[in-house]
Amino acid sequence: MSSGMIIREAHFPGRAPIDAYGNGGFRFAGMSHRGSILCLPSGIHGWQPSDPEDLREEDLAKVLAEAVGIEVLLVGMGRDLRRLPTPLRQTLRDAGLSADSMSTGSAVRTYNVLLAEERAVAAALVAVE
């Protein structure tokens, strides 16, 4: 009998506002998560983009898979505002997503407001220290 630790993919199966962010993670639904997250119709998922400063289509594959249930995608790019790469913006547009990049703090605040309004919002949030 093995007593090894089992590590599962981080996933909260519901929609919840983000209560706090910083120190490399997020708090929501009475829990905390260290690292970046995706807030999607299917729930809140742990997320590890390959390069948070240069997002690619592969980084947002889970978002694209759920694009039908999303009107607005907020992308929290970390502490500072950075534009999404043009090819990625086009891929998201082709999937019918309106994507807005901003600092993670701005994205968290906007996500919470749109979620409270019961809008079809999703967020890709890069953790900040």
Automatic annotation (TrEMBL):
SUPFAM superfamilies: MTH938-like
Pfam family, one: DUF498
Top-level taxon: Bacteria
InterPro entries on file: MTH938-like_sf, NDUFAF3/AAMDC
PANTHER family xrefs: NADH DEHYDROGENASE [UBIQUINONE] 1 ALPHA SUBCOMPLEX ASSEMBLY FACTOR 3, NUCLEAR PROTEIN E3-3
Protein name: Mth938-like domain-containing protein
Protein's organism: Aquibium oceanicum
Lineage of producing organism: Bacteria, Pseudomonadati, Pseudomonadota, Alphaproteobacteria, Hyphomicrobiales
